[in-house]
């Protein structure tokens, strides 16, 4: 039932968001060289790797040692501010790698990092389902809302 709902809603989102995604793609192309969409590696059920699709928001011609804010493009700052960089996730939903019910996923651990106890507990959870990791990764109630933090960044286009 969840998969069927994901397919129906995913197709609807692609149809409705296609013009927005096209405009974003054109703006990214005009703003800086490089791919429009990139795949960020993530860990799925039973440790299976998959790539979460996102719009590119950083200038790939700038050195990697710079902070993410220094590499952020003008368009990238705008689309991150409104979470539009995640729109290509709908293709992961259509492929069955993610579910619209739970767009949270575990990032790939860097070499030398160890899993937290929470991550170890959910290592076998399917990312297409609502999972423990998604609930446990939310900020504490005393933390400021994420939306207000992302909008505090000023962006000049």
Quick structural overview:
The protein is 41% helix and 10% strand. With 157 residues, the chain is mainly alpha-helical.
Number of domains: 1
Report the biggest beta sheet as strand number plus sense, adding barrel if it closes: 3 strands, antiparallel
Secondary-structure element pattern, one letter each: HEEHHHEHHH
Number of DSSP helical runs? 7
Strand line-up of the largest beta sheet: 2-1-3
Gross morphology: flat
Instruction: Give the termini distance in whole angstroms.
Output: 43 Å
Work out the strand percent. 5-15%
Low-confidence sequence ranges: 130-157
> Average pLDDT value?
75
Number of strands: 3
Mind explaining what this structure looks like?
The chain is mainly alpha-helical and 157 residues long. The chain has one domain (2-151). It contains seven helices and three strands.
List keywords for this structure.
157 residues; mainly alpha; 3-stranded antiparallel β-sheet; disordered C terminus
Question: Which SSEs are present, and which pair or pack?
Answer:
Elements (H helix, E strand, L loop, with lengths): L1 H30 L5 E7 L5 E7 L12 H4 L2 H8 L7 H7 L10 E2 L9 H5 L10 H5 L9 H6 L6
Antiparallel strand pairs: 1-2, 1-3
Helix pairs in contact: 1-3, 1-4
């Amino acid at each position: 039932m969840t998969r069927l709902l994901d397919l129906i809603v995913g197709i609807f989102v692609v149809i409705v968001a296609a013009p927005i995604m096209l405009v974003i793609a054109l703006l990214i192309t005009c703003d800086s060289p490089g791919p429009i969409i990139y795949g960020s590696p993530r860990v799925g059920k039973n440790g299976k790797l998959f790539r979460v699709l996102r719009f590119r928001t950083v200038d790939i011609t700038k050195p990697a040692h710079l902070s993410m804010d220094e590499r952020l493009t003008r368009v990238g700052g705008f689309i991150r501010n409104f979470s539009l960089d995640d729109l290509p996730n709908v293709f992961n939903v259509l492929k069955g790698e993610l579910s619209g019910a739970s767009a949270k996923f575990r990032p790939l651990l860097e070499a030398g990092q160890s899993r937290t106890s929470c991550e170890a507990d959910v290592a076998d959870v399917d990312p297409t389902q609502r999972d423990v990791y998604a609930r446990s990764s939310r900020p504490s109630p005393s933390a400021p809302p994420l939306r207000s933090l992302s909008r505090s960044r000023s962006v000049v286009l």
